[in-house]
Design brief:
CATH topology: Rossmann fold
Helix content: 25-40%
Shape: globular
Largest sheet: 7 strands, mixed
Number of helices: 7
Number of strands: 7
Number of domains: 1
CATH architecture: 3-Layer(aba) Sandwich
Strand content: 15-25%
Distance between the termini: 34 Å
Order of helices and strands: EEHHEHEHHHEHEE
Length: 223
């Protein structure tokens, strides 16, 4: 099948925004909070990246925006190999990197869960404005991801280009919150699995006109 370019909606060009969370990393496998730590993919993560690539082979991508962390860049490399676009234009930027977990970085999340209890753990892990010493809240991540999206990514989409973003669980959750206007008290319900693909149709006005999830990861609650 030949990759498709931008589609149409009401006879107007509609671009594709493709969001992919990196494949499973070494610390994902160990259940550790990774944050800014620059950890690479494990074999399973490489396969997840390849699966994500296969899931978007029908889309011709014009440009990619990638986190500056190794696990996202390794995922992008595998995707490019699968879709046979080794020279795809790409931009690497820290604005879309993972949440800084501060004092929790490197700690086993399941051990922390035992220490602080289920309710506090879920707030810490998925809440909107839950403080972490020396770290970031999801609100903080949102404050750096969304302006970057609006300044650099959205104009490309409005011009009809298909854009790929390879980033992390929390930076993508922050962006999806913005795209879908998810309320603060509902964002804890959103989790994006490693290697999962979210595809949005974006109109020339920058409005979301459609959504599809591919390469769904059934084990996402455990990483």
């Amino acid at each position: 099948m030949r990759p498709s370019r931008s589609s149409t909606y009401n006879n107007r060009t509609v671009a594709k925004l493709i969001l992919i969370r990196h494949g499973k990393s070494e610390w994902n496998l160990l259940g550790k909070w990774t944050g800014f730590t620059d950890i690479g993919l494990v074999e399973e993560g490489v396969k997840e990246a390849q699966r994500a690539g296969k899931a978007i082979q029908d889309i011709s991508i014009d440009c990619a925006f990638i986190s500056d962390l190794k696990r996202a860049q390794e995922t992008f490399t595998e995707i490019c190999r699968v879709i046979d676009q080794p020279t795809m234009k790409s931009i690497v930027h820290p604005a879309i990197k993972e949440r800084n977990y501060g004092v929790y970085t490197g700690k086993n999340k399941w051990e922390v869960k035992e220490e602080i209890g289920e309710e506090a753990f879920q707030k810490l892990r998925r809440g909107w404005d839950v403080k972490i010493p020396e770290g970031e809240t999801l609100k903080d991540v949102h404050a750096r991801v969304v302006p970057y999206y609006e300044q650099y990514i959205l104009p490309e989409l409005k011009s009809g280009k298909n854009i790929l973003v390879v980033a992390h669980g929390n930076s993508l959750r922050a962006l999806v919150k913005h795209l879908e206007d998810i309320p603060d008290d509902k964002i804890s319900e959103l989790e994006i699995g490693t290697g999962e693909v979210y595809i949005y149709d974006v109109s020339p006005e920058g409005e979301i006109t459609g959504k599809e999830i591919r390469a769904a990861n059934e084990s996402k609650g455990r990483v």
